[in-house]
């Protein structure tokens, strides 16, 4: 669907030769000897592609992009992988250009859920796409996983379909779709894939492929952690022993014990309604789902959808350091495919000179999808692996000695793990740092401080920024870390994410209270003063999160004004599928405690809350005034010190009309002329 320049066009010379990339076109496959020059010369013994990886993102050969990671990982195993990036989904023809995959289709909507990629918090179409060439929107469909799966089946019947990526992770169970305002079935059922891989899927995918290559039918590959599948009314789930299986009956009608522990969640039919009871059952299902995410002890989750049953295996264990190092050591070019010419991919420009040092997050923030996809356990790279990537960056065109970020989902969780593995193996706690930092969590900042020092002292490195989120409650435990951060890794402003100032809202977010931010602010200012640098924190806030009432938005504005802060970027809460906060938005209940939660559902009120975080902008003044009037805070309107917005001024024409007494005109009635 994307118009691309050929490798011989101008602009391609700035990038590496096309042969060093995974092939994106039929011609590239021919040049590699994978496909014949002419269709009639096809020899099944020597020709063919093992996997066609269909992706909603542009192909950027960089470890921050899933299509590159999966493609390079399979290439390292000796497989032939072709990338079908952002194909025209309106017909099956583009899905036929490489021929039928010899092993399987691999499908991903991309690095973002396709609806989140397309629409704003106010449900308006986005004007750009950060993962597309030139930032152009419209190069992938809504529900990309479902659409791509359908086209793959149309193109070649009988070829196994394996789906993965963020969209699968977030929508693997029955889930709320904010943009359609309803509970939807599991994406796995709607996409009709043979098997789905959720989470960071390297280990699970390789396990599936090894068994496929060994000749095992995909319909029998159902017991791999980190995967999910669906069965029909009379299908046998893998946890039911085959010798005792009785044909013609559903699994729940069979007698006997299961091979593994299972937990059946409320069915789709029980939770899809808009009534209070359905929403209570939905909240209960979400609580059970989020509680049972321990890869060592979680049961198999089962959820019925009519005559079908969804089976979700326990999560795959996080990669160990040596495994993660191997993923990052694959031969990435760190650039978009040459066929894009000089057209940039905005998301790549953001990470081009950054280094990811870890995966996963044990913060458990209820509005964040990182836990749903990357997991709660932190996987960290070795120092050697990171320093090798530093050397690779130095060879990239455009490198000027500045590393834009040294971090990950949370920069200072590097090498942090539970100190009691035997307890970690059965822990159900959704967050290691909320409501307080767990006493069993290893919070030593020594490894990350040492890594930061080695990277910044590397020859050819002038500056190393830490632009990823810093977990302030952890940082407050180590002043030396804050000193290093302020002295060497901040260029004037450090972005941090307190998210809110209202205690009830912060509790629902699973974020620390404002006292944590204020302590970090004081420590950071002291560290900056010690380093003789004038630096400031730039706090990041989220509007309209469940629990946040209109008055709380005013409190944030007052807080920011008192510190003379004017955030240029603010975020309105978007209920993304699968998160606890989205459950709160839909049900009005905290799924952990099953207590009622305030939810702002009126779109205009959501716009007011967002406008309040940027109260100084002239275009926001009408909404700010309206919210201040709604909350009885007209004391913040006017020209006095502390006012957020000027009192409403009447236009000159209205003022003139109100100040001038109208002239009353009389019309003479017809009658006789009076004589004198």
Explain what the structure shows.
This protein is an alpha/beta fold. It folds into four domains: 17-226, 3-Layer(aba) Sandwich (Rossmann fold); 235-301, no CATH class; 353-543, Alpha-Beta Horseshoe (pyruvate-formate lyase- activating enzyme); 548-644, no CATH class. Helices cover 31% and strands 13% of the residues. The chain has a nine-stranded mixed β-sheet with strand order 3-1-4-5-8-9-12-11-10, with helices on both faces. A three-stranded parallel β-sheet has the order 20-21-22. Strands 2-13 form a two-stranded antiparallel ribbon. α9 runs antiparallel to α21 (580-587), α20 (550-562) packs parallel to α22 and α22 (603-612) packs across α23 (621-630). The chain starts with 25 loop residues before the first helix and ends in a 17-residue tail after the last helix. Residues 1-14 and 650-676 have low confidence and may be disordered.
Keywords summarizing the entry:
676 residues, alpha/beta, Rossmann fold, pyruvate-formate lyase- activating enzyme, 4 domains, 9-stranded mixed β-sheet, 3-stranded parallel β-sheet, 24 helices, 24 strands, disordered C terminus
Gist of the model:
The chain has 676 residues and is of the alpha/beta class.
Largest pleated sheet: 9 strands, mixed
Count every helix, treating DSSP H or I runs of 4 or more residues as helices: 24
Ends distance: 95 Å
Mean pLDDT: 92
Please tell me the CATH architecture of the largest domain by its name: 3-Layer(aba) Sandwich
CATH topology of the largest domain: Rossmann fold
- What is the CATH class name of the largest domain? Alpha Beta
């Amino acid at each position: 669907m994307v118009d691309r320049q050929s490798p011989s066009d101008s602009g391609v010379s700035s990038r590496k030769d096309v042969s060093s990339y995974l092939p994106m076109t039929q011609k590239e496959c021919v040049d590699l000897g994978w496909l014949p020059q002419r269709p009639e010369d096809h020899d099944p013994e020597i020709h063919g592609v093992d996997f066609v990886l269909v992706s909603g993102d542009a192909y950027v050969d960089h470890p921050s992009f899933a299509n590159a990671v999966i493609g390079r990982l399979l290439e390292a195993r000796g497989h032939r992988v072709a990338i079908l990036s952002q194909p025209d989904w309106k017909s099956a023809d583009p899905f036929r250009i490489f021929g039928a995959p010899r092993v399987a289709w691999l499908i991903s909507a991309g690095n973002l859920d396709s609806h989140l990629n397309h629409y704003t918090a106010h449900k308006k179409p986005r004007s750009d796409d950060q993962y597309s060439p030139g930032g152009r929107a419209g190069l992938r469909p809504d529900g990309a996983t479902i659409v791509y799966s359908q086209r793959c089946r149309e193109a070649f019947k009988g070829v196994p379909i394996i789906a993965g990526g963020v969209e699968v992770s977030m929508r693997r169970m029955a889930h709320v779709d904010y943009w359609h305002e309803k509970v939807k079935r599991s994406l796995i059922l709607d996409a009709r894939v043979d098997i789905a891989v959720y989470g960071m899927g390297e280990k699970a995918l390789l396990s599936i492929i090894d068994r496929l290559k060994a000749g095992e039918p995909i319909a029998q590959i159902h017991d791999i952690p980190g995967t999910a599948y669906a069965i029909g009314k009379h299908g046998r789930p893998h946890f039911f022993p085959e010798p005792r299986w009785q044909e013609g009956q559903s699994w729940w009608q069979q007698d006997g014990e299961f091979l593994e522990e299972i937990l059946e969640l409320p069915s789709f039919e029980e939770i899809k309604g808009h009534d209070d009871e359905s929403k209570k059952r939905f909240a209960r299902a979400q609580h059970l789902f989020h509680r049972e995410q321990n890869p060592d002890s979680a049961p198999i989750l089962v959820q019925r959808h009519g005559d079908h049953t969804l089976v979700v295996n326990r999560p795959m264990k996080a990669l160990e350091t040596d495994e993660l190092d191997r993923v990052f050591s694959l031969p990435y070019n760190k650039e978009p495919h040459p066929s894009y010419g000089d057209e940039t991919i905005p998301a790549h420009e953001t990470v081009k000179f950054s280094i990811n040092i870890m995966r996963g997050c044990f913060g458990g923030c209820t509005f964040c999808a990182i836990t749903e996809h990357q997991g709660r356990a932190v996987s960290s790279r070795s120092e050697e692996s990171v320093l090798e990537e530093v050397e690779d960056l130095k060879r990239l065109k455009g490198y000027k000695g500045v590393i834009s970020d040294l971090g990950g989902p949370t920069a200072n969780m590097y090498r942090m793990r539970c100190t009691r593995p035997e307890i970690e193996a059965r822990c159900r706690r959704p967050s290691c740092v909320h409501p307080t930092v767990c006493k069993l969590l290893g919070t030593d900042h020594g490894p990350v401080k040492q890594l930061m020092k080695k990277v910044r002292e590397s020859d050819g490195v002038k500056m190393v920024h830490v632009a990823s989120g810093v977990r302030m409650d952890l940082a407050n435990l180590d002043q030396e870390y804050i000193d290093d951060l302020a002295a060497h890794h901040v260029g004037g402003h450090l972005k941090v994410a307190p998210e809110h100032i209202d205690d009830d809202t912060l509790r629902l977010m699973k974020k620390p209270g404002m006292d944590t931010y204020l302590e970090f602010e004081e420590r950071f200012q002291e560290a900056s003063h010690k380093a003789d640098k004038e630096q400031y924190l730039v706090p990041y806030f989220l509007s309209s999160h469940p629990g946040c009432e209109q008055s709380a938005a005013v409190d944030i504005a007052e807080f920011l004004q008192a510190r003379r802060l004017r955030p240029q970027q603010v975020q309105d809460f978007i209920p993304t599928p699968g998160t606890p906060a989205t459950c709160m938005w839909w049900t009005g209940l905290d799924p952990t405690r099953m207590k009622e939660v305030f939810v702002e559902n009126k779109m205009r009120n959501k716009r007011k809350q967002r406008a309040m975080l940027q109260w100084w902008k002239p275009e926001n003044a009408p909404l700010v005034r309206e919210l201040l009037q709604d909350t009885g805070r007209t004391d913040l309107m006017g020209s006095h010190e502390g006012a957020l917005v000027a009192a409403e001024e009447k236009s000159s024409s209205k003022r003139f009309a109100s100040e001038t007494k109208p002239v009353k005109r009389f019309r003479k009635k017809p009658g006789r002329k009076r004589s004198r």
